[in-house]
Amino acid sequence: MSILSASLARVKPSPTIAVTTRAAELKAGGRDIIGLGAGEPDFDTPQNIKAAAIAAINAGKTKYTPVDGIPELKTAICTKFARENHLTYTPKQVSVGTGGKQVLYNAFMATLNPGDEVIIPAPYWVSYPDMVLLAGGTPVIVTAKIDTAFKITPEQLEAAITPKTKWFLFNSPSNPTGAGYSWDELKALTEVLMRHPHVWVMTDDMYEHLVFDDFKFCTPAEVEPGLYDQTLTVNGVSKAYAMTGWRIGYAAGPIELITAMRKVQSQSTSNPCSISQHAAVAALNGPQDYLATNRALFQRRRDLVVAGLNACKGISCPVPEGAFYVYPDISGCIGKTSAGGTRITDDEAFATALLDETGVAVVFGAAFGLSPNFRVSYATSDEALTEACARIQSFCAGLA
Ligand SMILES: Cc1ncc(COP(=O)(O)O)c(C=O)c1O
């Protein structure tokens, strides 16, 4: 009999972490590697946030805290939701966890029974289906192709809903495509949801602040207040404030759900790091001007990468509305053979040959549920991006 559980056998390790680890190993071995796999800003946490953490340490804020967050942070989160999303929540409706990842996981653990279905638009963040599986639920994948700009249609959502649907998991701007739903596009989805009151909405708004051009971020309970009582709005400080290592994410929703999520967390990790919580208060309550600076920086990099990839033979790269990812289509490369002799049978073969032959690390599309594509994270320097695009161009030019 295996020591490992049956539920673990249903999930796979995170492919994005696997790519990042492999690229780091090759680099440690002396190879010239450009990593475009990691999903985190390449700049440092702002000074005021670090200072708040140091002050918290010096003030002895180093003990256990309430399981799902200190009151100051819950209040700061309520203020943030009112200020930025026009959503009214009280601290009792807020849960803070060790990253958005734990918050999402708690929500699934707290709500899913065997057979419960969770609608997940693809391409999706790699962790969603596996989290659902670990919690005993059934992922129902709805695929959004490049011809609808990687966004699902109301008709697709309607067709995916069954009596067993418990959640619709929504993520805009999206990891891995960067696609962002406009107010009208989201409204069309919420109209479907309003016809199916047994379906709850879990919205992952992690990339809210990384939006470009004149795109305006919006979130389901804001667009359709009628969904407020069945929506869990998830967000965090990782991406907006360059705080990925601090591990603070949060959610707001109905008290019954938030209480259940606290129960899950109380029997697993207890409170998120006390020092990080004080840092997150500073992030949310402090100056917000660097968000605009970062947006401008990422928009410039997006444009650089989209132009660089569209100059590659066999690749077509749409211009996304947000996040720091692009998700080029590589149909024109499939079936060819690389200069190094690898047959490009699928996007995994493409990514492997690209890494081996050029030292550029990207994550293959199959990991996100739509092929043949790959994901580029452009959260790295302009120089690295320019060099990476040049290498991808010459790799593609060498395909025969
Ligand atoms: C869409 C999405 N949701 C949630 C997370 C998790 O963020 P955190 O670092 O807060 O756990 C990520 C991180 O990559 C993400 O891309």
Automatic annotation (TrEMBL):
Q: Which Gene3D superfamilies match?
A: Aspartate Aminotransferase, domain 1 (3.90.1150.10), Type I PLP-dependent aspartate aminotransferase-like (Major domain) (3.40.640.10)
Q: Which cofactor does it need?
A: pyridoxal 5'-phosphate
Top-level taxon of origin: Bacteria
EC number(s) stated in the UniProt entry for this protein: 2.6.1.-
What keywords are assigned to this protein?
Aminotransferase, Pyridoxal phosphate, Transferase
Instruction: List residues of the Aminotransferase class I/classII large domain.
Output: 32-392
Q: Name one Pfam family in it.
A: Aminotran_1_2
Which CDD domains does the record cross-reference, listed alphabetically? AAT_like
As its record notes, the protein acts as a catalyst of: L-aspartate + 2-oxoglutarate = oxaloacetate + L-glutamate
**Gene Ontology biological process terms in this record:** amino acid metabolic process
Q: Which GO terms describe its molecular function?
A: L-aspartate:2-oxoglutarate aminotransferase activity; pyridoxal phosphate binding
Q: Subunit details for this protein?
A: Homodimer.
Q: Which family does it belong to?
A: Belongs to the class-I pyridoxal-phosphate-dependent aminotransferase family.
Protein name per Swiss-Prot or TrEMBL: Aminotransferase
**Origin species:** Flavimaricola marinus
